[in-house]
Amino acid sequence: MKPALNSHLKLLRKLGQRKYREKEQLFMIEGERAVEQVLENGIIEVESVFVEEGKAISYPLLANSFSLLKDMLNELSDTESPQGILAICKMPKPISIEGLCNVESGVIVATNAIQDPGNLGTIIRTASWFGCNAMLFGKGTVDAFNPKVVRSTAGATGVLPYLGGDLNEILEQLEGNDWDVLLLDGNPGSQPINKIPKSKKTVLVVGNEANGIDTSLINPKRKRVLIPSNEGIKTVESLNAAVATSIALWSVNN
Amino acid sequence: MKPALNSHLKLLRKLGQRKYREKEQLFMIEGERAVEQVLENGIIEVESVFVEEGKAISYPLLANSFSLLKDMLNELSDTESPQGILAICKMPKPISIEGLCNVESGVIVATNAIQDPGNLGTIIRTASWFGCNAMLFGKGTVDAFNPKVVRSTAGATGVLPYLGGDLNEILEQLEGNDWDVLLLDGNPGSQPINKIPKSKKTVLVVGNEANGIDTSLINPKRKRVLIPSNEGIKTVESLNAAVATSIALWSVNN
Q1: Which domains does chain A have, with CATH numbers?
Q2: pLDDT digits (tens, 9 = 90+) for A105-144
Q3: Closest CA to B108 of B31, B177, B205, B23
């Protein structure tokens, strides 16, 4: 394995920032199992792999693999306990809204303004598990190719088609093509998610962790739904955003 | 507000460690909303509150409140963006197993060896939301009063009765009193959780994030259950442990 070049290091450092990820259309995946998955799955194109000098990896690597000093890998790593391997991957292309309009049935998950990387990654992971049609990332949502998000997806990055942009615009287009929009909203007036009639084409919209659904998204044709609590005395304010989304996805799928 | 004493600082520093939390039977809660909740709920006894010097708090504090320099609070804080307030709280007492044996119906969540503090906190939060009867913390589970766990419960720490110890011993005693044990286990041979008959008294056992349910817990009278995936091609390995637990709790409750 050849040692990494200075140009590699420069690129890897840049990929910590969203603007460079978008400019280069590249992102990083870290960790032994995560890199193995991405090489196995073949969904994401891997450009190059960087391994800690002297570290044995149990699976075959790319021809385009380079060794890196431990200190350097630790510096580039986004985690507290780096695992000595990372890969530069090509960002998959977003899909077009038209492709989603013609789908016959399914579920789409839209994030209004999820800001915690762990929550977004977990939502992507669950949506992939349930075979959703797509992820829509509304403005204000943390970058789906942020290293912490990628780590929290546990290998599900790139599994689902995705699209980013103005959520109201996208939702209106989908609604014009018979998609029903559910707004996950714990506020009074929302209906328990298991009490609403099932729909063939459901877009589930998840709001911000602290502020919930943006009021600009609320309108009479969109149903507001919640995960009902069984708690007797009201001491727990809410569910975690990724948990609420996951239960809602289970409910609309079953 | 009087300034904090050196003895306070010494205690606060110690409470970062499990052995001191257990010895003193005290733990820390951090953040403006979290401290407010604990003062409001009255479930947890608050011993003293520490506020950043000069910081205005929008709710009434205890008589036993002290000011602390910002640097000192930041040092004591477990978070990357400290909110300038923390409280020392009394650890609630664990319950006895006998109290759970005589319950007529309900759901108990047992953690086999959950190690991620965020996952444990989220599981406690969801179990509280669904009004479970108790939490059982098996050996190998991260301390429920660890600051990261407490933060992830988002105010649900202390809401549910709890008990720690050898999980097999506790489960056997519960099984002798008509509790049915479900093992959440994604391995082959497990049944989809929505296909099993409902039980009046359910203990849901959650395994370790990487290794799943400990084999010593598996026996023929305990049903192994999973959250079925709808994914066509198998690219996603698993759900997040807190998400899987939450969906399972929703399923046994609905």
Answers
A1: 2-90 (3.30.1330.30), 97-253 (3.40.1280.10)
A2: 999 999 999 999 999 999 999 999 999 999 999 999 999 9
A3: B205
